[in-house]
Amino acid sequence: MKKSRFGRFFGVLTALLWITAVAIIPLTTGEAEVTEYTVVVDAGHGGTDGGAVAEDGTIEKDLNLSIALRLQKKLEERGVRVIMTRTEDDDTDGLSGFHKRKDLEARTKIGNESGAQAYVSIHINASKSYKDQGFQVWYGTGSDKSESLATPICNRVRNAEICSRIRAVKKVPNTLYIFRSVTVPSVLIECGFLSNATDLYRLKQESFQNALCDALCDGILDYLSGIKAETIPSETKNPSAVNENR
Ligand SMILES: [Zn+2]
């Protein structure tokens, strides 16, 4: 059917409005500049593998998942695509029963096939000494860039002044299979100690989890912004990206 002159005018007007919206929105959202990046968030343990257990019965896997889901939300709100290794109380190997090695292999596979720029695993520490406390970032050895991811995360959490103590970033020992096998820049976050009463009290508070995830999110974004700055001159991979002119 032939369009009227008004119909054509309306069509052109609609197209112009869309083009204007697409051009303006990415420039006005500020922190959404990292949209093209992907982060894997790994909630440690799950299912039959509970991880550490506190004196009051709090199980590490549950706090890990709660914190990981909050981090997912905050990263997505800031324009980052997130891949979760798990979103419920289960391990990742798809088998029934406890198969630690298979579970770690599955998490590694998710990381290495993700195309992500960062792999962030959430854990809670435990010690035989109830005095041991504090937050620590461990970094993987599968990528040279892992330390560059660990450092801004540690700095942001230090600046937030929410933890009982900030321990220095630490290279993971070679015995930790997943962090020598994940080739994506990777960190393991020990959010505190389940075996310490002060840390345990904080870790169970929603307000602490939210503040911690704000700081973790800021640290991850610092790292992603650094990658962006490094790659801008040679960036030709996605010519249709909305921010190609910046
Ligand atoms: Zn753990």
Molecular structure report:
The chain has 246 residues and is α/β, with parallel strands linked by helices. The protein has one domain: 3-Layer(aba) Sandwich (Aminopeptidase), CATH 3.40.630. The protein is built from seven helices and six strands. The chain has helices spanning 5-28, 60-77, 100-113, 146-160, 177-181, 197-203, 206-231; strands spanning 38-43, 81-84, 118-125, 136-139, 170-171, 186-193. The protein has a six-stranded mixed β-sheet with strand order 2-1-3-6-4-5, with helices on both faces. Helix 2 (60-77) links the parallel strand 1 and strand 2 (81-84). Helix 2 crosses helix 7 and helix 4 crosses helix 7. The longest helix is centred in the last third of the chain and has 26 residues, at 206-231. It is globular and about 65 Å long. Bound molecules: zinc ion (ZN). The site of zinc ion has 5 residues, from loops.
Write the layout of secondary structure elements.
Layout: H1 5-28, E1 38-43, H2 60-77, E2 81-84, H3 100-113, E3 118-125, E4 136-139, H4 146-160, E5 170-171, H5 177-181, E6 186-193, H6 197-203, H7 206-231
Parallel strand pairs: 1-2, 1-3, 3-6, 4-5
Antiparallel strand pairs: 4-6
The structure holds zinc ion (ZN).
Zinc ion binds next to loops.
Short description:
This protein has 246 residues and is an alpha/beta fold. 44% of the residues lie in helices and 13% in strands. It has a 6-stranded mixed β-sheet with strand order 2-1-3-6-4-5, sandwiched between helices.
